[in-house]
């Protein structure tokens, strides 16, 4: 007896779901390329569907329209830089607070090193944020910021609600953001080719970040004990 239960291996419903997921991912990948190339205003659902070799109704079905598709692309941008699952796994691991923060830098550099379309869209959005960005930040970026703040608090001993920890978060992320936002050729001319050895770059960023955080933690502890 045949079944349409999508949870049963080999069932028609399961195949339809897999086909639908593949179509959705293909549209997302193609849309990322086109949005990176043309920007939101000039990209069209028609061009995206043509390149993805699917019909026009697919964008509405999977994303609710062009704006929903762009929001999904922005979420994917942040996932490709460093996913929430990756950050959650680092935060929940048995590693030391220092090694957790080092793991964040490792993962971030891996997401930034390939120069894919997600980097071009990230740069475009940071230089001229779209109306869609806030929803994507609420869905993907803000939960990750909360996880990072918790790890920074564990390392420094500074409570999460303290303004001093927000400054630590800024200092930790700023060099990583610069690597994303700066043109690589210009940065290479100014600072030599820092991307030539990603392993050395990661190690330097970890040494720099952890040394600075340690100094801030010691200063904060000194003020707390004096008060």
Brief overview:
The protein is mainly alpha-helical and 227 residues long. The chain contains 11 helices and no strands.
Q: How would you characterize this protein structure?
A:
Helices cover 77% and strands 0% of the residues. The chain has 11 helices and no strands. The chain has helices at 12-38, 45-52, 57-63, 66-81, 84-92, 97-112, 117-127, 133-156, 163-181, 184-191, 198-226. Helix 3 packs across helix 4, helix 4 runs parallel beside helix 8 and helix 6 runs antiparallel to helix 8 (133-156). It starts with 11 loop residues before the first helix and ends with a helix.
Show the helix and strand layout:
Elements (H helix, E strand, L loop, with lengths): L11 H27 L6 H8 L4 H7 L2 H16 L2 H9 L4 H16 L4 H11 L5 H24 L6 H19 L2 H8 L6 H29 L1
Global outline: elongated
Mean pLDDT: 87
Helical content band: over 70%
Order of helices and strands: HHHHHHHHHHH
Low-confidence stretches: 1-11
Number of strands: 0
Strand content: under 5%
Please report the number of helical segments. 11
What does the radius of gyration come to? Answer: 21 Å
- The secondary structure category is mainly alpha
Roughly how many Å apart are the termini? 76 Å
Largest sheet, strands/sense/barrel? none
For the structure shown, list the relevant keywords:
mainly alpha; disordered N terminus; 11 helices; 227 residues
